[in-house]
Amino acid sequence: MTAGLLTYLALILVAWCALVPILWSVSASLKTDGQLTDIAPLPSRPQWSNYREAFDSIPLGRMLLNTVLYAACVTAGQVFFCSLAGYAFARLRFPGREFLFIGYLATLMVPLTVTVIPQFLLMRAFGWIDTPWSMIVPGLFGNAFGTYLMRQFFRTLPRELEEAAIIDGCTPWQTYWRVLLPHIKPAVMVLAVLTWITVWNDFLWPLIMIQRDEYATATLGLIRLQGQYTTNWPLLMAAATVILLPLLLIYAVAQRAFIRGIALYGLGGR
């Protein structure tokens, strides 16, 4: 009983630490500059106009649409190519498969900042700087983590499914697309949610690639609201709250499949 109580107290403490910044942002977005230091979570007269001013100060709506477009394209590409590569590494036999997979997996140890300059040079060579292509193409074709995740999920499926498909005359592509892929929907949801969150919160790459507000992401919008000497923090918190809402909505819709994918299989398979 005592151990269970301590566990719940620890979980409540962790949840509280995660929620406090979000609650403070929402609270600050409804205050004026002079009320930011007030202890009261909500002011007596909430400043709902901060949200309207955030949209008036920068093209926040366009930035949100841009971010949705980038996140949707990259997520679709990641799910498709990572699942395809994961299927190949898990189910197909070809020379050097394990060596190639280990080498691909080793790229996880390469910091993101190391690849920024080579990717920037490639984007400049293609003439894609300050275009939507620079935000979509680099992350479209999968990564080592997503491939590893899909491979582990494919390995949990019984071999009999694949053998039955081969007996029925399915090609490797038909086996992947029609037989095995529908059985790993929780894995697809896990990868999709993680990819969407990563693209949505990305700041460094858009900062390097995008200069015009026409193609800017929502995270760049927060920088636009910061002045050189002073910052309107209630306005900034209002924009941050608006940017956070789509993530909460996506997780609320996908949480059952996401949690099921993590709980039933995990990263190591059954």
Automatic annotation (TrEMBL):
PANTHER family given in the database record: ABC TRANSPORTER PERMEASE PROTEIN MG189-RELATED (PTHR43744:SF12), ABC TRANSPORTER PERMEASE PROTEIN MG189-RELATED-RELATED (PTHR43744)
Keywords carried by this UniProt record: Cell membrane, Membrane, Transmembrane, Transmembrane helix, Transport
Family note: Belongs to the binding-protein-dependent transport system permease family.
CDD domains: TM_PBP2 (cd06261)
Topological category with respect to the lipid bilayer: Multi-pass membrane protein
Transport as UniProt keyword: yes
Native source organism of the sequence: Nocardia aurantiaca
Transmembrane segments: 68-89, 101-121, 133-150, 187-208, 233-254
Subcellular location, principal: membrane
Protein name (record): ABC transporter permease subunit
UniProt-listed GO biological process terms: transmembrane transport
Domain ABC transmembrane type-1: 64-254
Superkingdom of origin: Bacteria
GO cellular component: plasma membrane
Keyword ATP-binding: no
Location relative to the cell: Cell membrane
